[in-house]
Design brief:
Elements (H helix, E strand, L loop, with lengths): L15 E4 L10 H9 L4 E2 L18 H14 L5 E6 L1 H12 L4 E7 L8 H14 L5 H8 L6 H6 L1 H13 L2 H12 L5 H5 L5 E6 L7 H10 L3 E6 L6 H4 L1 H20 L6
Parallel strand pairs: 1-2, 1-3, 3-4, 4-5, 5-6
Helix pairs in contact: 1-12, 2-3, 4-8
Length: 270
């Protein structure tokens, strides 16, 4: 897990954990994390299995394993409950963490992630991609062709350097780690029941130009959360922390304020 420059800040506040998307690493949260730390929050940005500084694993692909690794890291740092924010794959890890460690989630933000399991067709596509990314002859072509869909059309048109950065990160991601993560996501379970039971402040964020998760799916996810709300970001695709880091920080700041009010009112946040 990356160093936390704000570890001595935010006394009495819920620590914030930001979980990255596939096939990126924790650096995708850099600007949002910086803004949250400037506002006095303790922020942790872990790399997930096989990405960034995190070692790969020989375990069978499972987001439950990633969630449990996060729980162990929080234990090592003496952290109990957290505000958990995850984008895409990070959102699926966040929901796995919620299922397995519900009392440790004091607030929840899901960005570009659906609550349901993959359909058979979607899981099959992920598994085929996992196989293709391991093919040295095909990998660069496939990654270059699919990566633009991670960003909204507005971002692609107006910010070519960001598209170049995301494509570079995708090409640099270890193929075995990408394949493992795709298989783990394909095997994930439905999180609807866990969301319905989550009596914590929550927000679901969707880019208006997200080409991978639909607005209807985001609405359905938000409706499952007893204290959830939906925020749509115009001109943004699948990666809000990169495409709109300031807006993302503002949304999370509001969520954290809500969590603090809830805790202050004597309602359990974990």
């Amino acid at each position: 897990m990356s160093a936390d420059p704000g570890a001595d800040q935010g006394a009495g506040r819920l620590p914030v954990v930001l979980l990255h998307a596939l096939p990126l690493d924790s650096s995708m949260w850099e600007a949002t994390a910086r803004e949250l730390r400037a506002r006095g929050h303790r922020v942790l940005t872990p790399d997930q299995c096989g990405f960034g500084s995190a070692p790969a694993t020989d375990r069978a692909p499972s987001l439950d394993h990633v969630a449990d690794e996060l729980a162990r890291e929080l234990d090592r740092q003496g952290i109990g409950a957290v505000a958990l924010a995850g984008c895409s794959m990070g959102g699926y890890v966040a929901m796995a963490f919620l299922r397995r460690h519900p009392r440790r989630v004091g607030a929840l933000a899901l960005l570009a992630a659906r609550s349901t399991a993959d359909t058979a067709e979607a899981a099959g596509q992920r598994l085929r991609f996992a196989e293709a990314v391991l093919d040295d002859a095909a990998r660069a072509r496939i990654v270059t062709a699919t990566t633009p869909s991670l960003l909204g059309a507005t971002t692609r048109a107006r910010r070519p350097l960001l598209l170049e950065r995301v494509t570079g990160l995708a090409l640099a991601a270890p193929p075995r780690s990408v394949a493992w993560a795709q298989r783990a996501i394909a095997a994930r379970t439905d999180s609807t029941a866990a969301l319905r039971a989550a009596e914590v402040p929550a927000v679901v964020v969707i880019g208006a130009e997200d080409e991978l998760v639909s607005l209807d799916e985001a609405c359905a996810t938000a409706e499952e959360l007893p204290n959830g709300r939906l925020v749509t970001l115009p001109g943004v695709g699948h990666l809000a922390p990169l495409e709109a880091p300031e807006a993302t920080a503002e949304i999370l700041t509001g969520l954290l304020a809500q969590a603090q009010i809830t805790a202050g009112a004597g309602v359990a946040a974990c």
